[in-house]
Amino acid sequence: MDKVMLRGALFLACTTLLAACAEKASQDAAQQSGAAPSLPKAQQFLVPPMQVPDFVGWKDGAAPTVAPGLKIEKIASGLKHPRQLLTLPNGDVLVVESNGPGEEAVTTPKQLMAGMVKNRSGKGAKGGNRITLLRKSASGEWEKHDFIGNLHSPFGVQLIGDTLYVANTDAIVTFPYQEGETTIRTPGTEFTDLPSTVNHHWTKALQANPDGTKLYVGVGSNSNITENGLEVEYRRAAVLEVDVASRASRIYASGIRNPTGLQWNPATNSLWAIANERDEIGADLVPDYMTSVTEGAFYGWPYSYYGQHVDRRVMPQRPDLVQKAIPPDYALGSHVAALGLLLTQGNALPAKYQNGAFVSEHGSWDRSPLSGYEVVFVAFKDGKPTGKPETVVSGFHSKDESQLFGAPVGVVLDKEGALLIADDVGDTVWRVTAAAP
C-alpha cells in the first residue's frame, strides 16, 4: 500500500473512531474565565476528540461580525498567513506572514490524524516567510509593499531605534531600518539563536521593554506533556530575556506551555503573556490564560496546570515543582488558542474599550462545540483584569460550525487608534473603528 492510500485509510479509520468517541463540552467560556475558573475532573482518551470546520475563506463582500458601536473594513487581502502586526512610528504597518516550518517528524497515528484534520481547516497551508509593509495613501487606501523576504517561520517583530528585530523560529535576526523605506534589501544578521529542535510549537513571540534594553521571547514546548522527552524541552515552555547590548539570554520565567503573545503593561511596569495550555484531558480542560509574568516564577507545565492541579500523565512526577507553581491571573476558556495580545490604555474605539486587553483567539481543534475564533476584550482595573471577556469581533466560522472563513491572530492599534487584526486563515488584515453615530 503506497503512502497516499495508507494516509487515506488511516484518516477514514480515525474519522470513524472520532465520531464514536466525540465528547461535548459541559461548560462555556464564561464559566471558565476569570481569576477562578471552573476546572472539572480530567478525562483520558485513547484518541482525543477533534472538531475542525472546513476552510472556505471569505466570499466577496463578506466580513467578520463586530459588536454594537463598531464597524469593520478589509485593508489588505491576498496575503499568505498573516500572523503578527507592528505599527511603525510613521504609521506604516508591518505584516508578518508565516506558518510552521514543517520540521516535526510524524511518528504516531495521532500526529498524522491531527495534521490531516487541521489541514482541512486551512490552518496548515504554507506561510509567506516574509514581511509585507502596509501604507495608507492620501486617498485612504492601504498599499502593499514587499518589505523583507526569505525568513524562516517568523513570528514576533519589534523596532528599537533604527534596528528591526525579527524572531524567526530558530533565531532573532536584525535589519537596519530607515523610516519611510518600503523595502529592506540588506540581508538579516543573526542576533541570537533560539531553541529550534523539533519545533512542535514554532512561534516565537517578541516584546521589548520600554527603554529598549531587553527583549522578551515566548518559546513554546516541544510537546503536549513531554511525550517527546525532557531533553528536547531545554529552554522551552518559557519566556526568555535577551540583553540587547550583550545578546546574552536567560530564562526569565518557566512552566508556561506555549506563551504565544507578550505585552508590556505600562500601568504596572510589568510583562504580561497569553498562553495555550495542554490538550487531551477533556473539552473543558485546560483553560488558556492571560497572566503577568514574574521574574523567576514557575507556572506549572508540565507537572501541573492552573497552579497546583497535578497532571497525572506526566512521568516522573515532580511534587517539589508543583508546590512552587503559581496560578495565572486570568483564564480565557478552554482551547480558545489565544495567539494575539494587545494591552491598551487609550484608542479610537468607544469608551468601554479604553483600558484593558484585546485577545485574539485562533480557535479550538479538539473541542465541541467550537471555542475561540473571535477577538475579545477584557477590562482592566488597577492594572489587573476584571469581569468577563466581551466579544468584540466574531463570525469567523459558520453558525453550524461546519465552515471556516478566517481565524484571528495578531492585534495592534494603528497610528489613528483603530484596531487592526491579522486573519491568517482568511489571508486578510481587518480594521475596526467606532461606528458613525
Question: How would you characterize this protein structure?
Answer:
With 437 residues, the chain is mainly β. It has one domain: TolB, C-terminal domain (Neuraminidase). It is built from three helices and 31 strands. It has helices spanning 3-20, 109-120, 319-322, and strands spanning 33-34, 54-55, 65-66, 70-76, 82-87, 93-97, 130-136, 142-148, 157-160, 163-167, 171-176, 189-193, 204-208, 214-219, 238-243, 249-254, 259-265, 270-275, 287-292, 304-305, 309-310, 330-334, 338-344, 356-361, 374-381, 384-385, 390-394, 403-404, 408-413, 419-423, 428-434. Strands 3, 23, 24, 25, 26 and 27 form a six-stranded antiparallel β-sheet that branches. It is globular, with a radius of gyration of 21 Å.
